[in-house]
Amino acid sequence: MGRPQRRAFDLIENLEVLRGVPARSSDLPPTTFELRAAETLMAIARAMAPTLDEVREIAARHGIAGSDPELLRNAAVADLVAQRFPYRQPDRAACRAYYDAHPQEFRGPDLYEGGEILVGGDVTDREWRGEAYGRAERIIAMLHYDRRVFGDLLITSAANSRDRGGRIGPVACGAWESEVAAPFFSLKTGEVFPLPVPSRQGFHVLLMERIRSGQLRGFAEVESDVVRRLAARSRLAAAWRHLELLATNHA
Q: Which interval of the chain is the signal sequence (predicted)?
């Protein structure tokens, strides 16, 4: 988008003011071309903006019900209406400012590292289940006393070839498909899950060794994502302004 078109977007909401108020010496006055471009963009936005009947139709197509005031305050409706509006392509300075102000949005996921000791067997076998549960409890007690013995316990606790276990991670929460994932990700650094965790394989003893905070991704890596976010925010802001105008006009 060229400079005149970019400035035209900035002028859309302030055309009347700019026409009637002399520019300060520090201002760069709008050119005739920029004013005309802004008027054209205003006309396009108005033509694309849905009427109240169209808002009702959009909501109905997506299964959103409610009275007119409810529809005009509905966030899902605003998201749908936003797709009808043009938007300004944000410049690099605006993208960088947003990136610097919202670093938490551009961090990678936290990574979890730990281990498990599996006392494997047939969990439907009542006799085995009682003995295995007690064995897993004793392992937990030893880990509470000294987590450094995990490696030794991993070997000595494997009474047969069905017993497995080992290192877990580094893995992001939600990225490990396991019956015991939920209790594992509930742990804090240095914690051992207080009870043996059952699964179809047997009883698991779970240990969380460390949680690494997600790393901030570089601006160059996420710049295109920032552009999309700012464009979406611009469209959504225009949609909310339009819905508020409809609500006022049809009150």
A: none
pLDDT band with cut points at 50, 70 and 90 for residue 78: very high
Q: How far apart are CA 84 and CA 132, in angstroms?
A: 62
What pTM value is reported for the model? 0.58
Q: What is the pLDDT of residue 12?
A: 42
How far, in whole angstroms, is CA 215 from its chain's centroid?
A: 15
The secondary structure of the chain as a DSSP string is --HHHHHHHHHGGGHHHHHHSPPPTTS-PPPHHHHHHHHHHHHHHHHHS--HHHHHHHHHHTT----HHHHHT-HHHHHHHHTTS------HHHHHHHHHH-GGGGBPPPEEEEEEEEEES-TT-HHHHHHHHHHHHHHHHHHHH-GGGHHHHHHHT--STT--EEEEEEEETT----TTHHHHHTPPTT-B-SSPEEETTEEEEEEEEEEEPPPBPPHHHHHHHHHHHHHHHHHHHHHHHHHHHHHHHT-
pLDDT of 251 reads 75
* Mean confidence (pLDDT) of the chain: 82
CATH 3.50.50.60 is the classification of domain 111-212:
no
State the pLDDT at residue 25.
39
The segment(s) of the chain belonging to CATH 3.10.50.40 are 111-212
